[in-house]
Amino acid sequence: MVEVAAISSLLEVASSLFGIFRGAHEVAAARAEKLAALLEKISECLLTVKLSIKGGTVPHNECAKLESYSRYLPELLEGIVAPARAKALGATLLSAYNVEGLAIDLLGMPDREKHLVEIEVSSGQFKAAADLLRAGLS
């Protein structure tokens, strides 16, 4: 059941990034597009995890994706947030990378639906942050 705590880490990072990009922040177009693409990939990964668990299976390969994304995130946040905040967001996302373990935990829980909703909310916030970044480009 330890892995279920990872959901709060996902929500924390997603909410933080959504809050950052909801405001007016000037971001260089090339960096903004790369960051938006990364946030979208994180969103897709989490949606895959949710759908896999909902279907009763373990989302293999998604751990490696989320781990890679979390290591790249701080670099793309440079100049947008303070370096310490960028590293902290990357570390928090990395702490939630074990989505296979999360799936195994959730598959054994009869009340997993509320956790699946939280994963879907996180996915939506990452996607919304990506959309807000792109909207700032136009």
Sum up the structure in keywords.
mainly alpha; 0% strand; 6 helices; 75% helix; 138 residues; elongated
Describe this structure in words.
It is a single chain. This protein is mostly helical. 75% of the residues lie in helices and 0% in strands. The chain has helices at residues 6-22, 29-54, 62-77, 83-95, 99-107, 113-135. α3 packs antiparallel against α4. It is elongated. The model has no long low-confidence stretch (mean pLDDT 87).
Strand content: under 5%
- What is the tally of helical segments? 6
What letter string, H or E per element, gives the SSE order? HHHHHH
The separation of the N and C termini measures 44 Å
**Radius of gyration from CA coordinates:** 15 Å
Helix content: over 70%
Largest beta-sheet details: none
Total count of strands: 0
Which class best fits the helix and strand makeup?
Answer: mainly alpha
Shape category:
elongated
Low-confidence segments: none
Layout of secondary structure:
Layout: H1 6-22, H2 29-54, H3 62-77, H4 83-95, H5 99-107, H6 113-135
Helix pairs in contact: 1-4, 1-6, 2-3, 2-5, 2-6, 3-4
Compact overview of the structure:
It is built from six helices and no strands. The protein has 138 residues and is mainly α. The termini are far apart.
